[in-house]
Write a structure and sequence with these properties.
Layout (H helix, E strand, L loop, with lengths): L3 H8 L3 H9 L6 H14 L7 H4 L6 E6 L5 H16 L3 E6 L4 H13 L4 E4 L6 H10 L3 E4 L10 E4 L1 H14 L5 E6 L5 H15 L9 E4 L3 H13 L6 E4 L2 H13 L9 E6 L3 H4 L5 E4 L2 H16 L10 E3 L2 E3 L14
Parallel strand pairs: 1-2, 1-3, 3-4, 4-5, 5-11, 6-7, 6-8, 8-9, 9-10
Antiparallel strand pairs: 10-12
């Protein structure tokens, strides 16, 4: 019996390309598509690989695609999906996209090859047109951490603007008037949304965030450290620092300590995510709790529901919000030590 590898070898393409041709997905040239179809016909290849799928049954499998499962944030996401899988007696398949659009699409096609009915996708860079097309092809596809109006009923997302607003309001209430931001250099939508929330809140209090006080870097400890070093080298003044995520916040604290500044006595720092590291660093990090595990659990159950042929589509949206977790890295201006 011919396999997908046999088709790929004879056609001179990858197995992912064969899968895209089978499912009429992805970007495959007309000539390539015709060649693959010709080989499929000649080999009498049947794409479904297990008996239950050939009988028209589902495999009761949940798939999840994230950029990098080894990162704490995405590991927590996967934990939420696993919880839903266990509760629904489903198998779980996981894959990394490694921040690459094609790898993301290949991971989805691989899950489809395994007749995965429910797929949770944390998509960083695929364009909306591609995701809308995939949603039409895969009834059980749910997009996590991204909002696309045309497929809003299958988007589970966080209000990043309101989260940043709450963090900024908290610092303003503590008497801070000079702010700096270390944010992610990655070109997804979250950094811009959070900057919008920060500037909007400051404007409401007749305050402003100077563009010179915004520093971009990689969204990790090293990036946060380098971003703050740059701010200090440029002699930027601030009593409060908002970080894109907890890892950048911890890196920022390292840089502040290296410069002889104390947290929170000289500079208050607030993170975003509420990862386990926020509770184990010193000082313990005040941050915005990102309910990613709860969102992933919810998304997995939604994907299972949508994959059920008996399910009736609705226009319901699925929005989550962040909330502040007070710890030890923020102090009121009156409590900070004068220079």
């Amino acid at each position: 019996m011919a396999t997908i590898k046999d088709v790929a070898k004879i056609a001179g393409v990858s197995t992912a390309t064969v899968s895209r041709v089978i499912h009429d997905g992805g970007q495959v040239g007309d000539a390539c598509r015709a060649r693959v179809k010709k080989v499929i016909k000649e080999l009498n290849y049947r794409p479904n690989v297990n008996a239950s799928a050939l009988a028209g049954k589902t495999t009761n499998t949940i798939g999840v695609v994230t950029p990098k499962l080894s990162m704490t944030f995405f590991g927590t996401l996967a934990s939420g999906v696993e919880k839903a899988a266990r509760e629904n007696n489903c198998k779980l398949l996981m894959s990394n996209s490694l921040y690459e659009t094609q790898s993301e699409l290949d991971a989805i096609e691989s899950l489809r090859e395994h007749n995965c009915d429910a797929i949770i996708l944390h998509s960083e860079y695929s364009d909306e047109k591609t995701l809308i097309k995939l949603a039409k092809q895969i009834p059980g596809l749910v997009i996590l951490n991204r909002y696309i109006p045309q497929i809003a009923n299958r988007c589970v997302w966080l209000d990043n603007v309101s989260g940043a607003q709450e963090a900024t309001e908290y610092l303003v209430e503590k008497g801070h008037q000079e702010f700096a931001v270390v944010t992610s250099i990655y070109q997804n939508r979250d950094p811009g949304s959070r900057i919008e929330g920060i500037t909007r809140t400051l404007k409401e209090h007749d305050l402003m965030l100077s563009p010179d006080n915004i520093e971009e870097s990689t969204a990790n400890i090293e990036g946060g450290e380098q971003a703050v070093k740059t701010l200090l080298q440029n002699d930027r003044k601030f009593t409060a620092l908002l970080a894109y995520n907890d890892l950048m916040a911890i890196g920022a604290i390292h840089a502040l300590f290296d410069a002889g500044l104390r947290v929170p006595e000289d500079v208050s720092v607030i993170g975003f995510d509420d990862l386990i590291v926020a509770r184990s660093c010193r000082p313990k990090l005040t941050t915005m709790h990102y309910p990613i595990e709860e969102m992933a659990d919810y998304a997995a159950n939604l994907a299972l529901k949508l994959s059920d042929p008996k399910h009736k589509a609705t226009n319901q949206t699925h929005l989550f919000v962040a909330n502040i977790v007070e710890r030890d890295s923020v102090a009121a201006v009156s409590e900070q030590t004068p220079e």
